[in-house]
Structure formats: C-alpha cells, structure tokens
Specification:
The chain is 37% helix and 8% strand. The chain is mainly α. The protein folds into two domains: 56 residues, no CATH class; 63 residues, no CATH class. The longest helix is centred in the last third of the chain and has 18 residues.
Length: 131
C-alpha cells in the first residue's frame, strides 16, 4: 500500500502530474487509497486501470486465482473471492481422476454423437476404400 502518508500521496500526485505526456495512453494504479486514486483520476484525461485502488478507475483488474479463491492464506483487502477453490479443487480433481480411471468419464453426456445418417454412411467404409 502506498500513498497512506501525506508525503507519499503528494509525491505520487506530483509524479503523475509530471508524467502527463502524449506518449502516455493509460495509467495503472495499484494499492493506493481509493480517495487518492479518485484525486489522481480527476487530474488525468486518459483511462486508468486499477488493482486495489478503489472503484473510480476506468477498469478493474483482479487475478482470477483470487476471484476463485485458489490461494491459501492471506488475501489482500481488495480481493473478493467468489468461490473457495483452494478447498474445493483437490476434491474435484480427485473425483475427476477416479471417474476417468474407472471409465465413468467421459460418458455419453460429455461425448459428441454422429448426426443421423452419417453412421450408416460409414458402416461399409474400409481403409482401402477411397472416399
């Protein structure tokens, strides 16, 4: 987290203001307080993308591992997990492996079928017959 102290926030504002050039087409803001990000965004004319910088940016970034809860331990404040994949993933993979080894996967519901009439058309085919 940066920009929590007055000198850090001011330094960030000065740096961003100094970097307003035609060659800069996007700003990426990470780990700064939302109200500071809003101040920065209001001073820019280009899009901003954020991770951990609040809701005021033009776009949001979040690593899908965080969204799916695939990491163990500490979650940054800006992460909202929509699943607990770290706990669910091992069980899901074990069940899939057991089904695959046991012949239950793939089953008819996961398999494509030939359209009607095609099966009959290939019944008499042999490698020696031209197509």
């Amino acid at each position: 987290m940066q920009g929590r102290k007055a000198d850090e926030a001011l330094r960030l504002l000065v740096m961003l203001t100094a970097c307003r050039r035609p060659a800069v087409s996007l700003w990426y803001l990470e780990g700064i307080p939302a109200d500071l990000a809003a101040r920065v965004i209001n001073s820019l004319t280009i899009p901003t993308i954020e991770i951990g910088a609040g809701p005021y940016c033009s776009g949001q970034v979040l690593v899908f591992h965080d969204v799916l809860g695939l990491t163990e331990g500490h979650r940054p404040k800006f992460v909202r997990a929509y699943a607990e994949g770290f706990q669910q993933l091992p069980d899901a993979l074990s069940r899939w492996a057991a089904d695959a080894r046991g012949g239950a996967f793939p089953g008819p519901q996961e398999s494509y079928r030939l359209p009607e009439g095609v099966g009959e058309a290939i019944t008499n085919w042999a490698p020696s017959n031209p197509v």
